[in-house]
Specification:
The complex is a heterodimer.
Chain A lengths: L1 H28 L3 H31 L6 H32 L13
Helix pairs in contact in A: 1-2, 2-3
Chain B lengths: L4 H24 L7 H19 L1 H7 L2 H24 L14 H32 L7
The chains are: A mainly alpha, B mainly alpha.
Chain lengths: 114, 141
């Protein structure tokens, strides 16, 4: 049981780190504001989601025996994820709106090829 | 139809939780990371978010300039007050041990009072700073 939780936890954390890495490369490499926003949004939802899932498994496996109030950590992690689900799309939306209002032209392929 | 409906609804959902989280940080400061300064900043951030989304005029109706100034002064007064109460009860200035017959309890009361003072002052000053910058007129060259 302990072993299974540990393995699940590390798979989730590594998955989260992978999405974070992809998102970071996206922010550095993509051509304009809107495409970079897309990369940043992916980082928040998938990367942070998997990381928090992994931490949930850690909380269950590591604290179940020693701490009678282990579930409060779980509740906090779930709440953090719930608020992240609200705040990060709203922040992305606000940034995209600000970009549009500031007159940033969306990037297009200059040669007009698909 | 207002075109900023997503921001407005999102802010309306989030602001109560931001204010509640500030109180959590405040009262959890005894046991974990947190305390008066962080709580004051988070509390002010809730009001700043309201001002950013709904406009400065509406924010000024919720929290007028005066509230910010009065809070900034009131917190320092609470801080000093705790110090003088400790003096009045026979200790030195800000000696929490004198606040109660049991020194451990005295420390507890003292730190709660001090943190409350810090919360109120930081909230007031942060808000006053934001209002001071947000209220400036744009100067066209």
């Amino acid at each position: 049981m302990e072993m299974v939780l540990e393995v699940l936890s590390w798979i989730s954390i590594c998955g989260g780190l992978f999405f974070m890495l992809v998102g970071t490369i996206g922010i550095l490499r993509l051509p304009d504001v809107y495409t970079r926003l897309h990369a940043a949004g992916m980082t928040d939802t998938m990367g942070a989601g998997f990381l928090i899932l992994g931490l949930c498994f850690q909380a269950i496996s590591g604290m179940m025996h020693d701490h009678p109030s282990w579930w409060t950590v779980l509740v906090r992690l779930v709440l953090i994820y719930a608020f992240l689900l609200f705040t990060s799309p709203i922040a992305t939306h606000a940034l995209a709106r600000a970009g549009l209002a500031g007159g940033v032209e969306p990037w297009t392929n200059e040669r007009g090829e698909g | 139809m207002d075109d900023r409906v997503i921001l407005k609804v999102g802010a309306k959902i989030l602001i109560p939780f931001i204010l509640l989280f500030a109180l959590y940080v405040q009262f959890h400061g005894d046991y974990g990371p947190g305390g008066g300064f962080q709580a004051g900043v988070i509390f002010a951030a809730g009001i700043v978010l309201y001002a950013l989304v709904f406009g400065l005029d509406r924010a000024l109706r919720v929290m007028p300039f005066k509230v910010a100034y009065v809070c900034g002064a009131l917190g320092v007064s609470i801080y000093l007050g705790v110090g003088f109460v400790a003096m009045a009860m026979g200790g030195e200035f800000l000696n929490y041990n004198a606040l109660n017959a049991d020194p451990a309890k005295g420390q507890h009361y003292g730190i709660i009072g001090i943190e409350l003072g810090v919360l109120v002052t930081v909230f007031g000053v942060m808000l006053a700073l934001f209002y001071a910058f947000a209220g400036r007129r744009r100067i066209d060259p």
